[in-house]
């Protein structure tokens, strides 16, 4: 536990300046680097990293696409992303066809679906920061909601956990931990709304009832994202995706919940104004 706490403190100290300068290109560059590392971890987990005809183009896209929202509006970003993913699919099927069995349909499906998820999620973080109303406040919800849920689920489970949640996917997670993480996420969202209203000088008004319900929803999504990445690890017999964060694992171990929340929030923002800020 001590190693986890020390790593978390150091990581927060490093990451806070990135968030502080998020109006600059620093934020999308860091998102692109994390996306590239995350896709590398996934390709290594699925034993595809050494199939270079497959892995190199995927890694190239992972480093490029999260940068786009800083310069381009949402419509252009979505168009470029769609075209890139269509071209990537055609390319992967082509190399599969001429690989003489070295690259299988299962390889193509694993690489495409898993890295598509990671790339689009990191793009969503940049889109939430630069291309939605009150983006300077909205994108932080992904980090706050996911990490508060994860942190307090861990400590609630450690202190009170008795009933396993989904032991065949994540043996250490408990029902009590899930409930604790959810309750603290609700409190965090309400508290964040109050802080945003305060620092914005009243230009953003928080709807606390809506924030409470959004905290419940975000906690659920965050835990599903965590369990999804755990399920993939269990499928391939991997304990952690990487060792970048001692005691926590790799980028996908640390950002799994964040990515799920970012994807859901960008979908919501595409059809309506974000419901927790009025």
Describe the structure.
The protein has helices at 2-20, 26-45, 52-64, 68-71, 74-97, 105-130, 135-160, 175-199, 208-236, 251-271; strands spanning 164-166, 170-174. It has 278 residues and is mainly α. The chain has a two-stranded antiparallel ribbon. A hairpin with a 3-residue loop joins strand 1 (164-166) and strand 2. Helix 3 (52-64) packs antiparallel against helix 5 (74-97). The radius of gyration is 19 Å and the shape is globular. It starts with a helix and ends in a 7-residue tail after the last helix.
Strand content: under 5%
Q: Residue-averaged pLDDT, rounded? A: 88
Distance between the termini: 40 Å
Fraction in helix = over 70%
**Major β-sheet strand ordering:** 1-2
Q: Please tally the β strands and state the result.
A: 2
Number of domains: 2
- The poorly predicted ranges are none
The largest β sheet comes out as: 2 strands, antiparallel
Q: What order do the helices and strands follow?
A: HHHHHHHEEHHH
State the helix count: 10
Global geometry = globular
Helix/strand-derived class?
A: mainly alpha
Rounded to an integer in angstroms, the radius of gyration calculated over CA atoms is 19 Å
Throw out a few tags for this protein.
278 residues, mainly alpha, two-stranded antiparallel sheet, 2 strands
Brief sketch in words of this structure:
By secondary structure, this protein is mostly helical. The protein has helices at residues 2-20, 26-45, 52-64, 68-71, 74-97, 105-130, 135-160, 175-199, 208-236, 251-271, and strands at residues 164-166, 170-174.
């Amino acid at each position: 536990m001590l190693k986890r706490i020390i790593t978390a403190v150091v990581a927060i100290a490093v990451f806070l300046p990135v968030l502080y300068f998020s109006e600059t290109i620093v934020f999308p560059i860091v998102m692109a680097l994390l996306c590239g590392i995350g896709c590398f971890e996934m390709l290594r987990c699925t034993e595809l990293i050494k199939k270079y005809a497959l892995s190199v183009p995927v890694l190239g896209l992972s480093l490029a696409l999260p940068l786009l929202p800083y310069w381009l509006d949402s419509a252009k970003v979505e168009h470029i992303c769609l075209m890139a993913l269509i071209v990537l699919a055609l390319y992967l099927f082509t190399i599969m066809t001429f690989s003489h069995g070295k690259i299988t349909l299962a390889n193509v499906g694993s690489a495409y679906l898993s890295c598509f998820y990671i790339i689009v999620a990191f793009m969503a973080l940049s889109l939430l920061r630069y291309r939605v109303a009150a983006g300077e406040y909205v994108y932080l919800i992904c980090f706050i909601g996911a990490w508060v849920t994860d942190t307090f689920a861990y400590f609630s489970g450690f202190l009170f956990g008795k009933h396993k949640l989904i032991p065949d996917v994540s043996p250490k997670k408990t029902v009590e931990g899930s409930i604790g993480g959810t309750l603290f996420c609700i409190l965090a969202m309400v508290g964040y709304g109050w802080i945003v209203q305060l620092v914005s000088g009243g230009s953003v008004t928080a709807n606390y009832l809506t924030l409470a319900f959004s905290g419940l929803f975000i906690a659920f999504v965050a835990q599903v994202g965590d369990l999804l990445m755990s399920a993939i690890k269990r499928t391939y017999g991997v304990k952690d995706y990487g060792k970048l964060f001692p005691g926590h694992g790799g980028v996908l171990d640390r950002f799994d919940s964040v990515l799920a929340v970012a994807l859901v929030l960008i979908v919501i923002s595409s059809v309506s104004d974000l419901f927790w800020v009025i």
